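Run folding on both entries below.
>entry_1
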Amino acid sequence: MVKVPFCVDTDKLISDLKIISWEAADILLYYSKEIKDIKQKNKIVRNKGLNDPVTLADLKVNELIIKKIRENYSDFEYSILSEENVNLLSNSLCSNCDWLWVLDPLDGTKDFIQGTGNYAMHLALNYKNKPYLGFVLIPSKNELWIANGVQVWGERKDGVILKSKLSQEKNLKDMTIITSKNHRNETLECLINTINFKEKIVMGSIGCKIASIVKGDADIYISLSLPGASSPKDWDFAAPEAILNAAGGAITFIDNKEISYNQENFEQPGIIVASNNKLNHGRICSEIIEIIRNNNLYPI
């Protein structure tokens, strides 16, 4: 088992991060209401690009969390990788540090702008390029999912505890797949239709999707990046992986190899599968590979 640095008390660390997360929730909920007003929306949305918007909510949460981490935890060596600061911070990451905070202040920005409620805040503490602690905050559902490296649980803002409940479905055709609302492609749609899952749920935010698997509402999620197209990044998967692994599920590449973080450009290309049972996960990946090959859907 990984242990946080000797100068850090794990229980206090988690307690501090819970407080910070709920402060972030207040910011996100405030802007989620303000953005419904078209006049305010034009002030809140800051476009980095047509397919990559950023909002004041992203920036405010980013500022809050980085500030709090630096104030509270200056006694051990770490770096902070954030989606909003990646161009500034990536060149200054501590190459000798075992510990790396990985932050996505607002995962599912398009859903946030659209008002669906399917957005989340991701915060992970990685040890040697693997997620150790993970926090996935879903403000619209009043849920904060926490992984401490051993177990996972959810909490509401008033402290009510939520338990993980992975479903027991083991066969692909009996599974409910959860798929993206704003990041869909024909290849993935063809794969999903070919497998003929029992049910398909469409939802934004990887954090929301993985939390749905942790709660037992869905069984599997597939991320498929087309060659030459954009790919998910470290901050999309680190915290969600932490909570799903602690719950007993798994997230790997399609060949069942673990995700390794802090690689070139922080990208996670190709096909990534998240499922509800780590013991069954390898077989599920193998079955998907066979379907892809038999139908010539993707270069493997």
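>entry_2
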Amino acid sequence: MPPPAPGDREARRKDVSEAVWRVLADKGFGGLTLRAVAAEMGASTGMLMHYFPTKRALTTHALDLLEKRTAERPRRARTAEGLATVRAMLLDILPLTPGDTARNRIWVSSWDLSLADDALTAEQAARYTRLRSTIRPHFDAARELGQLATDADTDQLAAAAVAFTHGLVVQALFDPGRFPDEAQTAMLDGFLDSIAAERIRGRGGRRT
């Protein structure tokens, strides 16, 4: 396949991205190579090197593509402010549908590569920072609505929520029989109830 003309480059890059995604879905990051993507496209590795001159460039693109696909996935309705929205956002992370299970498998398969490269580690840390920053305002709203203690640290709550949810993701991926959909949902609800229960501090032990 010849190198793309300038006007075709964007269309060709989209084709490459689709091939990268199919390889990720089938093999995870462990199977992501220039050769595998080229075979998926029926193209040569030489053509792909116009886009990804190194394995690291391919990996970086794949992580960006995964983040984009994750952001564009269907979301649950957010019918109320505060903790109800936090719940919907965290349910969207859990592997409760085939699509979310596939995306989470790909994310987990990327961690080994990310941990082995300082720049990729920093990029992954930035992704977690962005995730926490999208959740924190809804904890702020919950505090204003009286769903949390007035002195609740919403930065810490957002960090705890992400850590809990991603830990549950890993357990559900490795042991789906022990963590079916209803168990994941119940555990998440229990976690959020424990946060809300902090409202009893200084109130004589009674929930307000």
